[in-house]
Amino acid sequence: MKKNVRNAIIAGNWKMNKTPSETTELINAMKPLVKDADCKVVLCVPFVDLDAALKASAGSNIEIGAQNCHFEKSGAFTGEVSPVMLKEMGIKYVIIGHSERRQYFGETDETVNKRLKNALEEGLKVILCVGETLTQREQGITAELVATQTKIALLGVSKEDAKNVIIAYEPVWAIGTGKTATSDQAEEVCAIIRKVIADIYDDNTAEGMTIQYGGSMNAKNADELLGKVNVDGGLIGGASLKAEDFSVIVKAASK
Ligand code: 13P
To answer: Would the pTM count as exceeding 0.70?
Structure first.
């Protein structure tokens, strides 16, 4: 990896998997396997597992994140969780704009922007997800689409606050399908995103930003994907539910 250039972050997105007791068990299994990581290690778990995750990871190099947060601090928003609540618990990271939220829960670029700004205001680090569907890739609009998602998500975000944003490029067609983008495809789009960041802010901000790849990253393909200059880590779904596989990815990012 290019640790001298940027901070590599390997983040697990457990999605809607694991109960609190299973969370404790899995983190206890992961701790010894990732303890020598030379990259940041983050686990984004369901809301109800956050407490167990914080307790199980205490004193280790594993940091804990949530998978979403609301755009208001409090109020009549049944079923939602605000970043103020996450912060008080000791949560450091939150995923915003995952394609599953966009696809199944009506998330739009505008609500992504509102949630992201609210999370940053509370001092959380945001993993912002962008990525095209298969149809959009076939239509040849990947670059424009990803640029638009990135630009709208970051509307009104200062250069200073952008330092707390990590971008995860997750092609929708590669999520949970076993179809990984080739390392060249991942590199190409991560480079496009970095250029967008340079256009919005400046070269320094772009060079300092961690841009991850996500979509069927696993123990076998991590080395090659993470070897690319603009791929600074991974957002891992399925493989983050297996301690051994996840630790192999963490090791690949630590080279
Ligand atoms: P998979 O690694 O299971 O494809 O999921 C990727 C993802 O959506 C991470 O946020």
So the answer is: yes
